[in-house]
Design a protein that fits this description.
56 residues; 2 helices; 0% strand
């Protein structure tokens, strides 16, 4: 036997059993959403807190 006969054929893509591309992409999007901190509010839209009236 020569060395060429013993080599397995290369696979054209990785085989992941039981995980669809939709599930994989959804998990990546969820991980990104969870790991990203919330954005700071726009300074033009932030209103100062209202002053409280004194109780009677």
């Amino acid at each position: 036997m020569s060395a060429i006969e013993n080599k397995p054929e290369p696979r054209p893509y990785a085989v992941v059993a039981g995980v669809s591309m939709r599930d994989l992409l959804a998990s990546c999007a969820a991980a990104h959403a969870v790991s990203t901190p919330p954005r700071l509010p726009d300074p033009g839209t932030v209103q100062p807190p209202a002053e409280h009236r004194k109780a009677a």
